[in-house]
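S1.2 Input.
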Amino acid sequence: MRAVFEWNLGARSLELGKRTLIMGVVNVTPDSFSDGGLYLDPQKAVDHALRLLDEGADIIDVGGESTRPGAQVASQSGDSATNASQAKPAASAPVTAEEELRRVLPVIAGLKKQRSHAVISVDTYKAEVARAALEEGAAVVNDVSGLRWDAQMAKTVAKAKCGVVLMHMRGRPEEWRRLAPPGDVVLLVKRELRAWAESAVLAGIRRERIVLDPGFGFGKSFEQNYPLFSRFEEFQSLGFPLLVGVSRKSLIGRMLAKDGKDVNVSERLYGTLAAETALILKGAHIVRTHDVKAAAETARVADLILAAH
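S1.3 Output.
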């Protein structure tokens, strides 16, 4: 069975567990693996977000920086970023906070203007971006670094009294190909997510504001993702709501490979839905997806199965 939680977002709360919530993705980036460049224009991004809400999204996740494999990321903490001697060409340089703000703030403001009650999440690891997005109307910070890459992020989230998603990532995107394999990836992810969540609580973030994401594909090889699927129910023991994001990812492309070749992004919908169904049945509370209508209908069926159990 799936535990039931009240996710406290400050001014409001969301019930998690009786029904799977759908988080729709709006990437305001030129280089995201699935939809990079499609919604760089703020009005196009707002229109897309409105469509996702109409299709059944409960939350809109707005992101202004891609953390695809190989991407360079900035650092504001002791967990240092790639040094200058390792730096890649300017085209793959880290996105500055100023550029990220230029991308995401007009979208958040425009969406709140048209749908004032929309629940908006900002996908960022930078405290400066999170702070400005929250002031503009976002209610959740979705941090792929688990609050580790910016020393000010935990304090910012605690002060804002917003919701927060702590995602698990091994290393940084530019390091993934060089990471040594873990002994037991499920135990590693559980141990580190538990430690990061407790650090967040010690920093002043209340437990009822925290959601955990095991980070499918983030620093895990294709093969290392399979135990995360098959043993996903073990993450319920952490005592927090669980978010999953497998939509259109390369791991789905590998699962559906034909003649030794991974299927491309446009052919990954059905595989994505199968993976999301399995994860809902094993305890996922929130599904982050590009394909909201399909995921929402899939979740309705999975939820009925769970309820019957």
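S1.4 Remarks. Strands lie at 5-8, 13-16, 21-27, 59-63, 119-123, 140-143, 163-167, 210-213, 243-244, 286-289.
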